[in-house]
Amino acid sequence: MYGSCAHLFFFFFFCYFNLPLAFCVLHHSGGYNGDFVFDDSEAIINNKDLNPDTPLSNIWKNDFWGSNLSSNSSHKSYRPLTVLTFRINYLLAGGLHPIGFHMLNVALHCVISVLMIDVFAILIGGLVHDGRGVKLNLSPKASFLAALFFAAHPVHTESVAGIVGRADLLCALFFQLSFLVYCKAFQGGDKKFSVLWIFSSILLCAVAMLCKEQGITVLVSENMYPFERVAGQIKLYAISCHSFGPNDLWIDFYFLLVLLFLGGSFLLYARWRIMGTGPPSFTEVDNPASFAENVILRIVNYNYYYSLNAWLLLCPWWLCFDWSMGCVPLIKSATDWRIVWPLLLWCCLMGLVYQALCSQDSNKRRLLTLGFSRETEPVIDFIGLMSSLTFSFLAQVHYNVGKNLADRGNQSAAVKYYREAVRLHPKYVHAMNNLGNILKERNELEEAEELLSSAVHIQPDFAAAWMNLGIVQNSLKKFDKAEQSYWNAIKFRKKYPDCYYNLGRLYADLNRSIDALNAWRNATMLKPDHSLAWNNMVILLDNTGNLAQAELIGKEALKILPKDHTIMFSLANVLGKQEKYKESEGFFLNALKINPNVASCHGNLAVLYHRWGKLDLAKRHYELSLRLDPNAPGTKENYNMLKRKLEQRQRTVG
């Protein structure tokens, strides 16, 4: 009998904690072998902070997308711990292999779902302890079933299947831990709490914020918890008459609120300083509701987002991997029938608030009070009411598809999607910019100029679009306009090395050599590993006969970029012209060790040997150059000259 009971206990224990795990794995197993898609390209593939060669300290200086927080283009999304987990994935897998990223996301969702058993136990059954201070679960079946439902809820799909959803998952995990640790502060009795556990909870809240900004909202839930404990014993009319229980209950209540308020204020201040003491700047594309015609329409649209998200919690039939402007059109007049939904939502909420304050059932008052402060879905991926605050940050679907195709080299298909994005939203400046870039590369310069001009007209501080417009105008020989566009880009983004590089190219085309060198020097000061800027300085100095200065610049560059074969090649040419043949030979050979299939490098090394009198070596490298590129300019003529010289030498010897 004892053995049977023990087996039954262990079976129940196994099912209790492993069924949520099984639900998670089964529900999300279809996405484990997915690729990097959409926002993954910017947050992971193009994010240099994931590379082990990048200093680890960079993740504390840059935003989620790898841009410096001080940059005008940064969205100030400071999530260093999330980026750190991406970096660990990269390190363990030896590169960008998506399966490891997906598996960790699923594992995190499993852990969160198991922890939800404890969270739901407190939400449903309340925080109750026995005489020894051990927490009791008064609703084991309800909390278990709620956790199962949570594990399989479709609304979590984006956060788990999308790798960038890692921020939601990590934030949710530490959100839960902060709340559970906070609840441990009350295990010593109903009227006392442990300050140490409260501070531990605030620390975990800070960790949640370092995974995603919404982690701060756990303090809202915790601020409501002491009120919930009081609300379970006191009704609204009693509060209004001040005829409630012992004063020490309210003293503890106020002291706890002060602790949480001070902790939250400190975290918000720290976050504000990290952002640079100013908010990020958003355009109409980023936040369409905030650009509605008047305040009334803005409020109506914000509340429509609330109602839409609340409905998705109950009936997730309309899910999308990316909420575009086409998915949720703005409400622009009182005749729009959708205005009914915000009204219905607030009617329901007001009814629930009344019940939370005035119900005769203390358990109902407690449950409703906690329910308002702790929507279960915002706890995890904030797709509920809290997520509406970040609703406007998501990009257009067509734009993301186009960007993904462009990253894969399918520019023709990308153009189609970018055009559709611009058609759906004529002020979508990022789509205009990317489309303009592709058209520039396809030499469709007039249309590219028109698109980029429209983009900077709509968003005058769009530095990247100004730079790209300058490149197009330079190609169209509109040099004055190109120069002005470059300076506009630098005006709105002070530290813009690529723009200085392109400005230098413009000056070089105009034979303004000093200005070109100054622009490229600025590029290398802002970005010391800017290979193209270094190389162009060496080439320009070489072409203008400043060989000694070109040599100095080339050697300076190689101290920073010791394996850059293009700079080695340019420096070798400079040294060869100075008849420093041995040193020049060394740089040519080192460049060929790094990249042995460069025809021009073999050809120029052959010229060096030709001048140096090492004719056999010259012949060998001429032949290698012609084998790699039979049409290499000048190589065939030089080779024929060498063959005649060798034939003449043989006749002389004979």
TrEMBL record:
The alphabetized UniProt keywords are: Endoplasmic reticulum, Membrane, Repeat, TPR repeat, Transferase, Transmembrane, Transmembrane helix
Domain (DUF1736) spans 278-350
Alphabetical GO CC annotations of the entry are: endoplasmic reticulum; membrane
Can you say what this protein is called? dolichyl-phosphate-mannose--protein mannosyltransferase
Question: Which domain of life does the protein's organism represent?
Answer: Eukaryota
Q: How does it sit in the membrane?
A: Multi-pass membrane protein
Entries under Pfam families matching the protein: TMTC_DUF1736, TPR_16, TPR_19, TPR_8
**What's the main place this protein lives?**
endoplasmic reticulum
Instruction: Provide the top EC class.
Output: transferase
Transmembrane segments in this chain: where?
A: 6-26, 81-100, 106-128, 163-183, 195-220, 253-270, 302-319, 339-358
Its annotated pathway? Protein modification; protein glycosylation
BP term (GO), one: endoplasmic reticulum unfolded protein response
- Asked if the record carries the keyword Endoplasmic reticulum, the reply is yes
Provide a Gene Ontology MF annotation, just one: dolichyl-phosphate-mannose-protein mannosyltransferase activity
Repeats (TPR): which ranges?
395-428, 429-462, 463-496, 497-530, 599-632
Where is this chain's protein located in or outside the cell? Endoplasmic reticulum; Membrane
Give the UniProt family note.
Answer: Belongs to the TMTC family.
Q: What is its EC number?
A: 2.4.1.109
The record ties this protein, via SMART domains, to:
TPR
Which InterPro entries does its entry note?
A: O-mannosyl-transferase_TMTC (IPR052346), TMTC_DUF1736 (IPR013618), TPR-like_helical_dom_sf (IPR011990), TPR_rpt (IPR019734)
